[in-house]
Amino acid sequence: MRHLFIILRHNPLLWLLVFVPVVLTAEKLKPEAHTLLFLLSVCAIVPLAALLSHATESVAVKTGDAVGGLLNATLGNLTELVIALTALHAGEYMLVKASIAGAIVANTLFMLGASFLLGGLKYHVQEYNRVSARVQTSLLFLATVALLIPSAVSRADAAAGAALSQKLSVGLAVLLIAAYGLGLLFSLKTHRELFASAESGEADEAPLPAGVALATLAGVTVLVALVSEVFVESVQQSAETFGMTPAFVGFIIVALVGGSAEMASAFSGARKNRLDLSVGIALGSAAQIALFVAPLLVLVSYFIGPTPMDLQFWPGAVVMILIATLTATLITNSGRSAWFVGVLVLMVYLIFAMTLYLLPPRG
Amino acid sequence: MRHLFIILRHNPLLWLLVFVPVVLTAEKLKPEAHTLLFLLSVCAIVPLAALLSHATESVAVKTGDAVGGLLNATLGNLTELVIALTALHAGEYMLVKASIAGAIVANTLFMLGASFLLGGLKYHVQEYNRVSARVQTSLLFLATVALLIPSAVSRADAAAGAALSQKLSVGLAVLLIAAYGLGLLFSLKTHRELFASAESGEADEAPLPAGVALATLAGVTVLVALVSEVFVESVQQSAETFGMTPAFVGFIIVALVGGSAEMASAFSGARKNRLDLSVGIALGSAAQIALFVAPLLVLVSYFIGPTPMDLQFWPGAVVMILIATLTATLITNSGRSAWFVGVLVLMVYLIFAMTLYLLPPRG
Amino acid sequence: MRHLFIILRHNPLLWLLVFVPVVLTAEKLKPEAHTLLFLLSVCAIVPLAALLSHATESVAVKTGDAVGGLLNATLGNLTELVIALTALHAGEYMLVKASIAGAIVANTLFMLGASFLLGGLKYHVQEYNRVSARVQTSLLFLATVALLIPSAVSRADAAAGAALSQKLSVGLAVLLIAAYGLGLLFSLKTHRELFASAESGEADEAPLPAGVALATLAGVTVLVALVSEVFVESVQQSAETFGMTPAFVGFIIVALVGGSAEMASAFSGARKNRLDLSVGIALGSAAQIALFVAPLLVLVSYFIGPTPMDLQFWPGAVVMILIATLTATLITNSGRSAWFVGVLVLMVYLIFAMTLYLLPPRG
């Protein structure tokens, strides 16, 4: 308990935790106040995500390099996973897919671009481990192909219908998880030295003791699940109140809320000239969502959703993921960065956000 | 006046200036002779473009590095801008868009490829500043995304109509001009040293005195505007006489005529083993058209055109711009060139030209 | 004769030659046993391809570097060419195109990826000549543009019909062969030193004497043609027996059978840490099929096919070739490889194979 208080004092973001009981109470008292519930749930998810990320890192530090890296690599996007599972359970497949695609794009463009910009405003030129970035963008490229091919082929071939899409999605999900697993084996075990300078293990804050960390991990996950339910229920209707399209909400708002904790770490790394950390978090997180969270949701949908979910995304989303991956690949090729690189990457994200904001709602 | 005569003696291309009064007279006497007027206007635009480019450089040299670079970067494609404005005023949006897309592709592929080839036939291997090339191709990539996303999304979403396209185009235009401005800040101010060897300021010919240069700039711009009017009016009808499709004329002929002056500089640079100069002109000019001229035309169309123009291009043109940008990105990655690199880039341009030449006219 | 026996003793693969008379006899006796004939013809083509490849290399060694390189570069895919010519003669254009596209993709992804993986399982990190790889991927990129543009433009422009496609295909075929020829001039003559470490001339087995090699070349080509006829006739029907779609058979099975000999060389090179050899065979072979075999088939179709063949491919195949080229370009950019790079490239191939396997048959 004392440890949690120390963390609370060091990280003012966590004071937002007070919104957790507030939103859960409000949901009981005023289940119709969608806009209020939406705002409260956002305020509650942000600190929970930060706490979850800190607890994961603490467990990772305690368990040593290999297991710790594995933990970080699988639980690093626990918030996104819990939100998506809640939406999956509610049968909101559009929201699930939009939030997955949005999270990939937000990590690859917004988090990476803002890190380059924030770092570049302080340091003239920054360098980072480009081998590590190359492996992550290659994984992203593989995931993009896996999302692209089914929709390209099914377009060219109208006869191929939902049945093909479903079978293909399961096969691709297994393939992507296997690729992700082999990627971990490569970067944590057989070729660890190539990723040396990434320093992803060094947490800035003091790690929690193992017991506290595990308890926090379990408890906060439950809380995230509870708040996510309010968030998922309220997000669409309150979006209309704000005049936002559902596509914009799923793709931009949910992704930025879900990734807020990692963004805080990535930006702070960039300001401390530890760009390796920022690039690792941004691209690693995008790869994890594309090759682990998304396929996992497809497989899990056979058990918890009303009907199975496939990997066929809205074509506009596939194009955006493709462009985001290409941008990251071309930009990280040199292993050097300056403020303007950040501007360029952010501009691509802005183009996406603007397009989605102006897009009229479908149906 | 003496200065102008010296220039005329050094540059036989400028003797073509005699066609300026000829075409303007011919237009009064024989307004129906489209083919003749087309040929005369081409012969008149080429030397005017060369003179305009020389005057811009002279003003740039006099005003010092930062302002000069800015002038070069904004007025470097004055010919293309004036031709496009004339076509815009005449409501010829198809021609405007084809000439913009064509100019981007001609600079990125034809000017770059021919520079590599001409330089490579004389020197075994040539090197150039690849950091500078990378910034320009990144800007081009951003512009390509800005052209691609609206058409990709509106295809995927038929409900999104002309209204979306119009609002989006204004937003994208502002974004692209902002990116271009920040790019100038980056390359002319904060990270100037990265672009050091580009030597874009060194003009081969002696610069004009400031007064003469400014007067030339103003006078020649007026002449280009007058001749452009004849050119725009005659180009489509005379194209039919030559058996060319409108797409081929707008994309290939107008682009090559408008860029003739810069091509002369780029090719001469390559023959003198100053490939930095050639690559800088080719890619810089393409970026300028994509991120400054095209967005400016969209914004200006609200004031001078019959109806506002949007940024939605013919899908075939978007694909060509995308391929041209990818080609330039991949080819300039190494910072080295040999004759065969030029052949490869020119071949891509030839494929485009051949396809457009064979394409049956629409409508 | 003695030489052939020595080869037979060193290369157990060649014992499969016994299937050549078997399949030709079986075809006479049981022309309806499609599945049997298919299996027998596969078993017969594999050793013939190996023998053909060895004979070509022997002739190449005898004739010296320039002519030898040229021979290798034009006859290296003789097996694929003969199979495709047989299918062309039978009017099986779908099979011809599927096998061409499949061979490009199989060489670029399967052969390259498996070489990286097999080499990487033995050596920690392997290096290869990336300049050479860059030239080959650039040629592949050019061929991809040539396949992409016609279908992109004709989609955007429905008015453009079969007539355009035919004229364009002939033009593109001439252009691609010219680019391939200039590429040979570049890599074998003017800039030979850049390709130095490729060592493609060093055959592992002792070369055949010139006379034996030429006789083998001629004799085996005739045998391949005879067996190919059985293969082409039986492949589609026996595929149905195995529950495979025609797309899968043409794209995957035919490509792997036709390229088996080169794969054996590429994999053996990778295991001996001569990755230059593997990358050269894989990418060189893909470039040769895309820029020499495919265009040649278009031109030849005017003489031997029932109607001329064009270069317009099924959109799904174009997307796969595009992705394969992009993958090879991005992956070979660094000139270094480890086992995981091989896994990534193979995964892309697996995604393609799985999609084609699940695709319902058309029509």
What does this protein structure show overall?
Chain A is mainly α and 363 residues long. In chain A, 78% of the residues lie in helices and 1% in strands. Chain A contains 14 helices and two strands; from the N terminus they run H-H-H-H-H-H-E-H-H-H-H-H-H-H-E-H. Chain A has helices at 2-10, 19-29, 34-62, 65-75, 78-89, 93-122, 130-156, 162-190, 210-241, 246-258, 260-271, 275-304, 315-331, 339-358; strands at residues 126-127, 336-337. The first copy, chain A, has a two-stranded antiparallel ribbon with strand order 1-2. In chain A, helix 2 runs antiparallel to helix 3 (34-62), helix 5 runs parallel beside helix 12 (275-304) and helix 6 (93-122) runs parallel beside helix 13. The longest helix of chain A has 32 residues, at 210-241. Chain A is globular, with a radius of gyration of 20 Å. The N and C termini of chain A lie far apart (50 Å). The model of chain A is unreliable at 198-203 (pLDDT under 50). Chains in contact: A-B, A-C, B-C. Chains A and B meet through helix 13 and helix 14 of A and helix 7 and helix 8 of B.
Brief characterization of the structure:
3 copies of one chain form a homotrimer. By secondary structure, chain A is mainly alpha-helical.
Q: Got a strand count of chain A?
A: 2
Strand content of chain A: under 5%
Oligomeric category: homotrimer
Overall radius of gyration of chain A:
20 Å
Count of DSSP H/I helices of chain A: 14
Helix content of chain A: over 70%
Q: What overall form of chain A do the CA principal axes indicate? A: globular
Strand order of the largest sheet of chain A: 1-2
| Overall pLDDT metric of chain A | 84
Structural class of chain A: mainly alpha
Major sheet description of chain A? 2 strands, antiparallel
Greatest interface and its residue counts?
A-B, 30 and 35 residues
